[in-house]
Amino acid sequence: MATSGPATIDKLFICLLFLLMLSVPATGKVLDGDTHWRGTVELSEDILIPAGITLSIAAGTVVKIQPSENTQIDPEYISHQTEILVRGALLVDGTVDRRVALTSSSDKREDYWAGIIVDGGLVKISHADLSGAEAAVTVTGGRADLDHAGIGKNRYGLVVQGGDAALNIADTVIEKNDYGVMVLNGARFDADIRSRIGDNSRSDLFRAVASGPLLAESSRQQAGTAPLTVTYGDEALPHYTVWKGRVLIDGQLRLPAEGRLVIMPGAIVEFTRRDTNRDGIGENGLQIQGLIIAKGTPEKPIVFRSAAESPRMGDWDAINIMGSDLAQNLIEYCRIENAYRGLHFHFANVAVNKTILRDNYRGAQFQESLVSITNSRFYNNKSGLQTRDSEVIFNNNEIFANLNGANFFRLNLKGGGNVFADNNREGLRIREGTSLLERNLFAGNRMGLLVADAVYGSFAANVMSGNLESGMLVRNSDHIEIVGNAIQTNARNGISVMDSRATIKGNLINANGERGLGIISFNGVITDNNIVDNRLYAIGLEGAGDIDAAGNWWGDSDLDKEIYDVHDEPDLGRVVYDESRAAPLPFLWPLTRIRSDSVWAGSIRINDPVTVDPGTTLSVMPGTVAGFGDPESGLLVHGALKARGEVDKRIVFTSASGDKTSSWLGIQLERAVGSVLENCDFSYADYGLHIHFVPMEISGCRFLNNNLGIRFRSGPIKLKRSLFAGNRIGLRAFRGNMEIFENEFRENEIAVFVREGGSGMKIHHNNFSNNERYNLRLGDFNKEDVDARHNWWGTDKPGEKIFDGRREPYIGMVEFEPFLPAPVQLKGIVKW
Question: What SS3 state is found at 801?
Answer without folding.
Answer: helix
